[in-house]
Amino acid sequence: MSALGTVLLATMVLLGALTQRATGLGFALVAAPFLVLLTGPAVGVSLSNVLSASLCALVLVRTGRRTLWREVAVLAVPALLAVPLGVYVVRTLPEGPLLVAVGLMSVAAVAVVAVGRNRALLTGRGSAVVAGALAGFMNVTAGVGGPMVTAYAVSRRWPLPVFIPTAQATLLVLNVASLAGKGLPPLAATVWVVSGVALVTGLAAGELLSRRLGAARGLQLVIVVALAGGVATLVRGLVAL
């Protein structure tokens, strides 16, 4: 990876970790499209899964006392059932179509967050099944399972102090399951070190800013950056086609 690519990777991982600590969501939306651009769709999504799982575990340690574990289980079961389908798609699609799929799902995920942050998109008895299954599939294929969890949380009216740990626990399960199906990505040690340092730095910065950065402003930042990454990935896929 070039020096510029390494700097971009570190920046996106740091920004993603910061926003996720402050708002409960953001790492995959911000970082995953750029990781895909830098390392390819299969490796980039798997790297996002590794880093997201690590971040979720670290945030959960700090915020886990208010986790709704029953809701985690309700979402995780359909998500785990959808993981094998996502693994099959990743292993069978060529790079061009896979980039297009990742880009489209990333943009769709941003739209779900932008449109659904103030309204209930998933209502009724089957909402947890729909949200969980879509989160599991999108997490494996595009690294962006969080928006569907967010849509479900808004519909259930979870307050932010409850949403943050409950979302982390759910996404931790999804990312571990995704990696179990695909395996760890083959990357140079430098990439792992840079990613790890950026993740911890972003988490520490997010801890400090969580008291000052409003959830609404943080979410606006996530939407803007994530949309740019999703569109760039989509364009790269279209060019590859």
UniProtKB/TrEMBL annotation:
**Family recorded in the similarity comment:** Belongs to the 4-toluene sulfonate uptake permease (TSUP) (TC 2.A.102) family.
Q: Which protein is depicted? A: Probable membrane transporter protein
Compartment(s) of residence = Cell membrane
Cellular compartments per GO CC: plasma membrane
Alphabetized UniProt keyword annotations: Cell membrane, Membrane, Transmembrane, Transmembrane helix, Transport
Record keyword Cell division present:
no
Membrane topology term reads: Multi-pass membrane protein
Task: Give the source lineage, highest ranks first.
Answer: Bacteria, Bacillati, Actinomycetota, Actinomycetes, Geodermatophilales
Among InterPro entries, the record links this protein to: TM_pro_TauE-like (IPR002781), TSUP (IPR052017)
Annotated TM spans: 35-60, 72-90, 96-116, 128-154, 187-206, 218-239
